[in-house]
Automatic annotation (TrEMBL):
InterPro entries: EAL_dom. It comes from the Bacteria. This is EAL domain-containing protein. Residues 8-47 form the EAL domain. It comes from Boseongicola aestuarii.
């Protein structure tokens, strides 16, 4: 395996383990047009 592939595999496994352990929290933030005040969508954040 190449170094890049091993790193990607480590990242995937670490993310899966953190999600299973409840160590990842997802937040959403509304996107509002500042001029019109119209809701345009959401921005998703993972912490």
């Amino acid at each position: 395996m190449t170094g890049a592939f091993e790193r990607r595999l480590w990242e995937i496994n670490s993310t899966q383990n953190a999600a299973c352990a409840g160590d990842i929290a997802a937040d959403v933030q509304p996107i509002i047009n500042a001029q019109s005040g119209v809701f345009e969508g959401v921005d998703a954040l993972v912490r």
